[in-house]
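step=encode ok
step=design start
structure_in=
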């Protein structure tokens, strides 16, 4: 009976261990989904956050970089501790911190009150009353007609909303910082836990499955971002019929906070299963040692933690930095991080400003086209490497060729030209000729000089002549009919159309559409998708792993990720945003004075800065790829006296020889087998 009870207890322990491993794998896959879901949603909302808090693109870059700062604050510590801590509970705490950080980012929405965009729209008590934007602007400046204010109900807020336009964006920054801190332990601790307690033949499959689940997160995050960007920020609290703007307007702010609430809830749910998982599991196939492992693992790891020398890391760093292949690859990673992070952070803004695409549509296209194509490219790249059994030299050649091909296609971005928005007094004169000056004095013309228009307002109207005017006042409009989005201004003295007498033209709310830009967009999207596919094909960094000795592989991956984040993920959004700010032609105005977010960009300058930065960084990558290829060819090329005659090899294999020794073909493998450092 005792033997039967013992066998039953072993079987029960085996079933419990297998069940715990399955629970951990499912929970880890969901946590990967949660972090990808939240991160991509936050990226997609950068433009909405910029407009809601009336901040510049460089400040948006700082908010975006705060995630990397938080991640780096604990990444080194988490990687160093490894199995010395209760990994499931640390991951659970990380997911909770992510959830708290997301909810912290939402707080400003409930502290700021309703969003009031700058406008000169008037609400009429009597629908038959025709109001003049020109006269109203004058009366607002002199503030001498109280009856007019009572009649017109000018909707521009009278109070100075200092809180709404000051520093509440710091809540978003701190929330994003906490998200970076919470995300840090998920990958290193989760991957090491799976690797430690699963069979060697199952480990790669488990990790691949988990990463595949994680890839779904960014796609759904961008789709949620597209949905929320199309909703008004104060959805449910404002009559949407009273709005005079649509999602294509640069003053439109979507419900950025709504998606963050969903992301916070998902992160919270991801934390729950980890609290109930054990510190350790028996190795798959070795469940008999469960009790012994559970009792001794903590003390053993504690002893290792106290006695592990720091000099090991210093020695490993010196070896890696002395390896030219790894050093060049490290520089390549840094430049690629810079170009990729800068591209993704401001891609929706670029599409909006360059091609008249709404932010919600741009986010949607990224989620349903670009991300799936990138994922497909990664799988195809791995399949090609496995199918053709590419060695390190073949992988280097494949990676170099694909990147250079993508770079040459990248240069074609500049051919997707788009005209600058024609704004009277800003980019063109009131007669329609190009205006080289962008000063405020150019805003006023003889046709609107008697209107005393407020110079810093932006509530654009499109004239019959295809020119955009900053407000109906600057168009010299003397009357209007309709309300909300349907308001039409008439008798506009500055709108000059052939065949009509001066002053008989009209204007409608919103910027004029640029048809040529809209027609160019499908070609740009096709080019962008092709480049993304080709880049993803050669994006497998396996040759970096092969180029270092086995005992330094994990350390090399950590150094590569650390330098990429510090020197790429952190500074790229900041300097990209700062340079993009330099192309702004018309800044919005905060309620209490000062510049808000940008309303109009010089689209040609924007394109040259944005695409030029990406092209410059990728040009450096091309040079480093070629250098890396040359170094790998020299390092791993078979020596002349060790070349193998393929014909004789084929003959010998037919006679019974099954394989050729790796050490006979590649001198570096022989050095590694002898524990030498020649390969480094």
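sequence_out=
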């Amino acid at each position: 009976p005792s033997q039967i009870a013992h066998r039953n207890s072993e079987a029960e322990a085996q079933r419990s261990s297998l069940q715990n491993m399955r629970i951990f794998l499912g929970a880890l896959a969901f946590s990967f989904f949660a972090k990808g879901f939240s991160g991509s949603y936050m990226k997609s909302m950068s433009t909405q956050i910029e407009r809601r808090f009336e901040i510049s693109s460089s400040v948006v870059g700082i908010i975006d970089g705060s995630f990397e700062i938080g991640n780096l604050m604990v990444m080194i510590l988490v990687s160093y501790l490894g199995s010395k801590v209760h990994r499931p509970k640390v991951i659970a705490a990380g997911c909770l911190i992510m959830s708290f950080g997301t909810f912290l980012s939402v707080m400003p929405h409930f502290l700021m009150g309703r969003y009031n965009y700058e406008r000169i729209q008037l609400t009429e008590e009597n629908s038959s009353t025709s109001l003049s934007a020109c006269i109203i602007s004058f009366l607002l400046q002199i503030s001498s007609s109280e009856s007019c204010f009572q009649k017109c109900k000018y909707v521009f807020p009278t109070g100075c909303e200092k809180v709404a336009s000051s520093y509440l964006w710091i809540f978003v920054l701190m929330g994003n910082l906490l998200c970076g801190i919470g995300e840090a332990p998920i990958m290193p601790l989760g991957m090491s836990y799976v690797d430690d307690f699963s069979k060697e033949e199952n480990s790669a499959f488990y990790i691949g499955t988990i990463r595949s689940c994680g890839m779904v997160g960014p796609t759904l995050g961008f789709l949620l971002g597209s949905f929320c960007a199309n909703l008004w920020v104060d959805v449910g609290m404002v009559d949407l019929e009273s709005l005079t703007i649509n999602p294509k307007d640069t003053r439109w702010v979507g419900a950025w906070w709504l998606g963050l609430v969903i992301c916070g809830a998902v992160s919270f749910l991801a934390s729950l299963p980890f609290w109930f998982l054990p510190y350790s599991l028996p190795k798959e196939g070795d469940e008999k040692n469960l009790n012994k492992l559970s009792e001794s693992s903590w003390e053993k790891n504690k002893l290792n933690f106290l006695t592990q020398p720091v000099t090991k890391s210093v020695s490993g760093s010196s070896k890696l930095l002395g390896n030219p292949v790894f050093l060049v690859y490290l520089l390549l990673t840094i430049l690629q991080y810079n170009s990729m992070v800068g591209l993704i952070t401001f891609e929706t803004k670029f599409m909006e400003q360059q091609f008249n695409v709404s932010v919600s549509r741009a986010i949607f296209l990224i989620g349903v086209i670009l991300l799936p194509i990138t994922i497909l490219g990664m799988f195809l790249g791995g399949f090609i490497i496995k199918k053709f059994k590419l060695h390190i030299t073949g992988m280097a050649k494949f990676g170099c060729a694909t990147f250079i091909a993508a770079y040459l296609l990248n240069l074609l971005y500049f051919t997707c030209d788009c005209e600058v928005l024609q704004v009277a007094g800003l980019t063109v004169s009131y007669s329609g000729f190009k205006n080289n000056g962008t000063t405020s004095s150019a805003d006023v013309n003889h046709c609107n000089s008697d209107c005393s228009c407020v110079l810093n307002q932006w509530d654009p109207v499109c004239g019959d002549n295809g020119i955009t005017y900053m407000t109906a006042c600057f168009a010299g409009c003397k009357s209007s009919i309709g309300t909300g989005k349907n308001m039409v201004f008439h008798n506009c003295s500055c709108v000059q159309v052939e065949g009509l007498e001066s002053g008989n033209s009209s204007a409608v709310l919103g910027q004029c559409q640029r048809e040529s830009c809209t027609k160019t967009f499908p070609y740009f999207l096709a080019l962008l998708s092709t480049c993304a596919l080709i880049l993803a094909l050669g994006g497998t960094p396996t040759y970096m792993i092969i180029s270092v000795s086995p005992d330094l592989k994990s350390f090399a991956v950590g150094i590569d990720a650390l330098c990429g984040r510090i020197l790429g993920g952190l500074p790229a959004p900041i300097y990209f945003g700062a340079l993009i700010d330099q192309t702004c032609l018309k800044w919005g105005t905060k309620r209490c004075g000062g510049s808000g977010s940008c309303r109009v960009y010089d689209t040609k300058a924007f394109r040259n800065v944005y695409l030029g930065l990406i092209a410059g960084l990728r040009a450096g990558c091309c040079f480093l790829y070629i250098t890396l290829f040359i170094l790998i060819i020299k390092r791993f090329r078979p020596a002349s006296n060790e070349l193998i005659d393929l014909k004789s090899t084929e003959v010998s294999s037919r006679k019974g020889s099954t394989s050729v020794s790796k050490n006979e073909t590649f001198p570096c493998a022989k050095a590694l087998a002898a524990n030498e450092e020649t390969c480094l």
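step=design ok
step=annotate ok -> The chain has four domains: 17-115+160-305, 121-155+422-513, 309-415+515-630, 638-673.
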